[in-house]
Design brief:
heterotrimer, B: alpha/beta, TIM Barrel, 7-stranded mixed sheet, C: alpha+beta, Thiol Ester Dehydrase, Chain A, 16% helix
Chain lengths: 139, 212, 157
């Protein structure tokens, strides 16, 4: 169900999980739009030469996945703050899950806080963070 | 009594959880824990008083610290002002033997955490520095562990005869209570926590497999 | 600046000195202008579905909230900032949004060092530099983008 107004939201509610496109072509498209065309993001072999396990999904792209998940859940939600901590590399062409859960609702300001995680298939958190989202208080 | 012995709030540089939201999460989700200990990185939070929140929620909310040594990170429970005066919690190059001794001298207890983790876990440094004297307990379940880090911790604990504790290492609200420690005793404050840890009447538990 | 200690690479006195010298001083000012297509491509690659971020024809079309985090100042660090010995990586990004960013508008990014600190982690000892770029449209502050850069210390030779 899409969230339209604050009263639609419940504390502890899990946002629908979103599996992002981390394929090399999509990452290259992102890097071009963001003007982040470093080989560590767009070329597995070049990244390995830098001592990395493979090409990295840029942190700002992981952040973008998390914002996209919020908008899929609440299309009119207005993200006021999003804060992401990169704990471990997110690797291009590997499979991840973008998750969120509501951890605070402020009825007065119309704001909700959401815990955010990028998790791999083993259930390990690679990126975590929080977002503050303003929702309409009535339709 | 079950306590999550390892959690961070917004007082830690990488913590993103408000303590009030930990409480709300535990109560709303019906987590099977009776409380938690805030172990902020490289500091002891003398300022915050969670006693009203604890009383209203019925949860035990205690404070400790997580400091950094040549053997990796170490939880300290039972921190007093005199302990923080004798040990610089902000120093990221503390000697483990100094932390253990200072804790002991000031009625506290020091416990290496996530010992199976590369670099910041004790197991990674034994080859270089040897088995440290004075360690009796290590964290054998950590909610932030990846791959086989907990297994390394448990193998080391078993080999060295250490007892194990559990903690979530939560930095965000929804990670609280992923791992915890079950005590035989009832614990209401930091002094009782230290006594219970010294008694050895506890076991590490994990809820990670049950977590969403 | 004190000479770095060869055994540990990162000298704590350098950290204290760097904090005193660099915190909260704007060291870079740069202007930017973006097209609607850049904003839309950025959003679509991230999996955005809200049309105000993906469709330039939308009446409220704007940059994705995180877009300002992609902006680079003309110089990464202030002149004279210590060169800690190690591999630099993004440790985190945060954005605070005050007003939407529209395509075709000339933006000004003013950048300062907001915090410097050390800690140890899975990858060894680390120095964190928190860099904040405030993004303006004229005098209006549109957003503040924080980048946390971590230098992971190389093992001593």
């Amino acid at each position: 169900m899409n969230i339209q107004v604050l009263s639609d939201v419940n504390f502890g509610e899990e946002l629908p999980v979103f599996d992002p496109d981390t394929g090399i072509e999509n990452v290259r498209r992102f890097c071009k739009a963001a003007n982040w065309m470093g080989p560590r993001f767009t070329d597995h072999e070049a990244a390995k030469k830098e001592g990395l396990p493979g090409a990295l999904v840029p942190g700002i792209m992981s952040q973008g996945f998390l914002a996209a998940m919020i908008h899929r859940w609440a299309p009119t939600g207005n993200i006021k703050h999003i804060d992401t901590v990169f704990r471990a590399p997110v690797i291009v062409d590997e499979h991840y899950h973008i998750k969120g859960v509501v951890t605070d609702i402020d009825e007065d300001s119309g704001q909700v806080e959401i815990d955010l995680t990028v998790v791999n298939d083993a259930g390990e958190t690679r990126v975590f963070g929080t977002a503050t989202v303003v929702l309409l208080q009535s339709a | 009594m079950i306590l999550d012995l390892h959690a961070h709030s917004i007082k830690s540089d990488d913590g993103r959880a408000k303590v009030s939201n930990y409480v709300q999460w535990i109560k709303t989700r019906g987590l099977p824990i009776d409380g938690f200990v805030l172990t902020e990185h490289r500091q002891f939070d003398f300022e915050s008083d969670y006693s009203d929140m604890a009383r209203e929620s019925g949860l035990v909310i205690l404070k400790g610290s997580e400091v950094e040594t040549e053997y990796g990170h170490v939880l300290v429970f039972g921190v007093t002002e005199s302990l923080t005066q004798s040990l610089d919690f902000t120093n990221i190059r503390l000697a483990l033997k100094d932390v253990l001794k200072a804790a002991d001298d000031h009625g506290a207890i020091a416990i290496p955490c996530h010992p199976g983790r590369p670099r910041v876990g004790m197991a990674a440094h034994i080859e270089t520095y040897g088995i440290p004297a004075g360690v009796g307990i290590v964290e054998t379940f950590n909610g932030g562990s990846r791959e086989n880090e907990d297994e390394i911790a448990q193998v080391m604990a078993s080999a060295q005869g250490y007892r194990g504790i559990g903690g979530s290492d939560a930095h965000i609200v929804s990670h609280i209570g992923r791992c915890a420690t079950r005590f035989e005793d009832s614990i209401r404050n930091e002094t009782e926590l230290v006594i219970s840890l010294r008694s050895g009447r506890f076991e590490a538990i994990t809820y990670r497999n049950a977590a969403a | 600046m004190r000479k770095q200690d060869n055994e540990h690479n990162i000298d704590e006195a350098d950290i204290r000195e760097a904090r005193a010298k660099f915190l909260n001083h704007v060291f870079d000012e740069k202007t930017f202008t973006f097209t609607a297509e850049q904003f839309a491509d950025y959003a679509i690659a991230c999996g955005e579905t809200a049309s105000c971020y993906t469709d330039p024809k939308h009446p409220d079309f704007q940059a994705s909230p995180g877009f300002p985090c992609s902006l680079h100042p003309s110089q990464r660090m202030p002149d004279g900032y210590p060169r800690f010995n190690g591999l630099g990586m993004d440790a985190g990004k945060a954005i605070t949004v005050y007003q939407p960013i529209r395509p075709g508008v000339t933006l000004t990014g003013r950048t300062h060092i907001h915090d410097i600190y050390t800690k140890s982690g899975r990858s060894g000892r680390m120095v964190f530099s928190l860099i904040r770029m405030d993004i303006y449209d004229g005098e209006n502050l549109l957003s503040s983008a924080d980048t946390s850069i971590v230098i992971r210390e190389r093992p001593a030779a």
